[in-house]
Amino acid sequence: MLDVEELSGRHDEALSIAQLYDELEGALARTFPRSRRLWVRGEIHSLSEQARTGHCFIDLTDPESAGDRQAPVLRVKCWRTTWAPMKAMLAREGIELQPGMVVLLRGTVGFWRPRAEVSFILTDIDVTALLGRLAAQRAALLRALESEGLLGRNRRLPVPAVPVRVGLVASPESEGYRDFLGQLARSGFSFHVRLAPVAVQGAAAPRAIARGLARVADAGCDLAVVVRGGGSRADLGAFDTEPVARAIAGAPLPVWTGIGHTGDESVADIVANRSFVTPTDCGRELVAVVAAWWESVVVAGAACAMRRAGDALADLERRDAEVRGRLTGTARHLLHAHRERLGARAARLGSLGPASAAGAAASLATRASRLGPLVAGHLAHAGDRLAGWRRLLAAYDVDRQLERGYTLTLGADGRVLRSARQLAAGSELVTRFADGSARSRVDAVELAGGEAERGRSR
Fold it and tell me: How is the chain split into domains, by residue range?
């Protein structure tokens, strides 16, 4: 048997996407009409402000389920006409919306058909609740620092007597930066400034300031200075944050702050070694500290040294006058004594002079009488010796030898020949006699010992 079941479809009742969105939009409009303003509490997960349109978009999550990956997210939209005055109002109160802040928002429920997106149109924000929460967070931070012993730690660090090596944590070329350095430049003192350039406003500012303080502490500075020019409370919000407070409280060197306040002092001011209303005041006080040291040590020391030098010079002049007086008296006494001794010696010499002259004359006469015979004797002896030398020289006179029959043989060059070895066959000889000379030529030379050269002499 064949069993046939008829399937009947009701496709004619299916909804189109537009119809579905119409029903959803109608249901939302009945439950959340535009006239109904709702308060919604949530934690800011992300926030973006479009520069081109001026609109602001915020993603809110439930604070209790912020870490849950399946936590519901509400898309909050704030149009430019609402966001611009709201942002200005928050800035006047020192509030800057950032991720992690829990806020209470007022607005209406909206539905965006192109993406079927349910959103929340922001019209107002509970500033009172935000201020109370920020104040509570600030008080909690101060209590935590006090319980850890950090609240007054930096204030107890001694400031060096001459803090001229300054670590500056600031935004380069900002008004506060120029005001602070202007005070140092006009002081006339030689400051050495190590700059740690940081952002002092915005979400990244707190950690940037903390890192800047760590850098100047490692640079071996005497003092760290954090400066920031004037601005709204929101602009100065970084100085109420925990990273900045802990960086200042835990710094190994004194930290001064010069923040352009528009209201109460910040947490950074409370934990700092010293705080000033403006960067100009901070620079002026730093110059005053160095000037006070200069006056008390250098100027006062120089004045004391000048006074003592004057006293010492006066004392030396007095002692010099005393010494000169003593030297003058001693010199006069010595001159008088020498003059008396010289007079006594002159008198003695005057009395001894004639007797000494007579004795000297007698001695001279005696010596003169002995000197004549001695001179004659010496002259006679010298004459005898001279005659002996003359006889000796006459015995060796060549002419005398020639007269005795001897001859003198000379070479052609006129030199005396003393050996036959000086001759050779053909040599020319000159034989000198007492009464003349003869020339001859050698035919042969005969040497003693049998060696012979025969020849005739012509």
Answer: 16-125, 150-291, 394-458
Q: Name the one residue in this structure whose structure tokens are 């010595």.
A: 334
Write a three-state SS string for the chain.
CCCCCCCCCCHHHCCCHHHHHHHHHHHHHHHCCCCCCEEEEEEEEEEEECCCCCCEEEEEECHHHCCCCCCCEEEEEECHHHHHHHHHHHHHCCCCCCCCCEEEEEEEEEEEHHHCEEEEEEEEECHHHHHHHHHHHHHHHHHHHHHCCCCCCHHHCCCCCCCCEEEEEECCCCHHHHHHHHHHHCCCCCCEEEEEECCCCCCCHHHHHHHHHHHHHHCCCCEEEEEECCCCCCCCHHHHCHHHHHHHHCCCCCEEEEECCCCCCCHHHHHCCEEECCHHHHHHHHHHHHHHHHHHHHHHHHHHHHHHHHHHHHHHHHHHHHHHHHHHHHHHHHHHHHHHHHHHHHHHHHHHHHHHHHHHHHHHHHHHHHHHHHHHHHHHHHHHHHHHHHHHHHHCCHHHHHHCCCCEEEECCCCECCCHHHCCCCCEEEEEECCEEEEEECCCCECCCCCECCCCCC
Which residue in 175, 180, 172, 267 sits closest to 223, CA to CA?
Answer: 180
Task: Check pLDDT > 90 for residue 283.
Answer: yes
Highest-confidence segment of 102-111, 239-248, 411-420: 239-248
Mean pLDDT of the chain: 82
> What is the Cα–Cα distance from 413 to 405, expressed in whole angstroms?
24
Token reading at 365: 């006469």
Tokens read off for 381 = 């002896």
Predicted confidence band of residue 457 (pLDDT cuts 50, 70, 90):
very low
Task: Give the CATH fold of the 16-125 domain.
Answer: OB fold (Dihydrolipoamide Acetyltransferase, E2P) (2.40.50)
pLDDT (mean) for 401-428: 83
What pLDDT, on the 0 to 100 scale, is given for residue 356? 77
CA atoms of 438 and 430, how far apart (whole Å): 6
Q: Are 442 and 425 in contact (CB under 8 A)?
A: yes
For tokens 């060059």, the residue is 413
* CATH code linked to domain 150-291: 3.40.50.2300
* Contact between residue 289 and residue 263 where contact means Cβ atoms under 8 Å apart: no
